[in-house]
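Continuing from the previous page of notes. For each protein in this section, the sequence appears first, followed by its structure tokens. Read the first protein now.
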Amino acid sequence: MTLSEQLQHKINQKTKPLGSLGRLEKIALQVGLIQQSLAPVINHPHIIVFAADHGIAEHGVVNPYPQSVTAQMVLNFINGGAAINVFCKQSGIQLKVVDAGVKYDFDPALPIIHASVGKGTSDYSKGNAMQAQQVHECIDKGRKIVADLHKTGCNCVGFGEMGIGNSSAAALILHHYTGLPIHECVGRGTGADDTLLLQKQKVLQEVSVFHHLSKGTHNAEELLSRIGGFEIAMMVGAYLEAKERNMVIAVDGFIATAALMTAHALDEKVIDYCIFAHCSEEQGHQHMLQYFNATPLLQLGLRLGEGTGAALAIPLIQQAVAFLNQMASFESAGVDTKKI
């Protein structure tokens, strides 16, 4: 039998009706295939939050909050006051925060990963957001962060983000890869009202025309250089490295999935390592899930980011592995199987 067949047989022989653990059975199978093992384990799960600023956000044309909030939230992460801190602590998940390119001078002594590529990207309504060299640097740094984490024994990771204006970049990535009109890709982000939402759609439509995004002809690295954020590009590298290290990846919401779309354009096999945590209330995220033909684990009405959905889903992945390894089989428990 193939490994897939052996795993399915092991799942089917547990003391339960066939398929009665639903999605948990599929997760157990997937994790076993990722780890190439009949007895997979989840070791030292982590959430990595990548933070960076976006030049488009400086003028407040696409975001209700000032750009300064990005740095303030990073400090909040460090102080343990954000939702992601609470969820990680509750579930025993380790949290790492990365300065990928925040427009702020953090104290080098702060307990974050200092990987800044610049003080925010350039305004992509006027030119490219990043230079090609910066894109490569971001991807390389994202890879290194995950490689270093893997060396500590971590084999399960989720990626989160913080960056005022990054839902706009994510909407443009969705628009580019799917060809959907801007108004179907753009949501309220951090809470845009109706007036700001219409303005956001107008500005991003102009950006699409300026960068020829609707044609879907840019390769992944060129797309990142045109409209990506440092944190999104760094997540791309992180996804690719996690796949290379055979790590289980819990995929968070709108921005994290935009980064995955870009990583997928570079390596289609990355999707085999991904478990989609939840469906965000940000309307574009539903289109992203459809793009991947993915069914998320949770439907909680979240639209926060930070990796919060991934943190909530990782315990379910752990439960799937636990039943596979610890639940009795019909034979070991002396329970009769069904007659027909």
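Done with the first. The second protein uses the same format. Note its length before scrolling.
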Amino acid sequence: MHALRTYDYAIVRVVPRVERGEFVNAGIILSCDIERILKAAIELDEAALLALDSGVDLELVRGSLAAIPAICAGGAEAGAIGRLSPRERFHWLVAPKSTIVQTSPVHTGQCADVASALEHLMNRMIRR
């Protein structure tokens, strides 16, 4: 039996019109210090986003969302932020922003398998 691991996560949200505060959940960022894991899964429901704002710049949104898993992976491809530790990158990603891509407050969970936890969160919070 595997020991329970504590992890932190935030929901990635697309807020097409910040002044209205409406959003579509588009992914999960998950960090587990014990396992040294920082991962993101992104799945944007573009039809739901377009229902909130038919004029949203989808290319901008797609590019912003694509940057999140790259930053989680770290390395030169992620630029200067990619050189930070996984925990520092997590905190940078989940810091409050008033842009089109935002995150929820950070939540904590426990699981025996972190990869399964990410999939569970995607099924529960993102997929319709």
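What the second structure shows: The longest helix spans residues 58-73. The chain has a mean pLDDT of 95. We return to this in next week's lecture.
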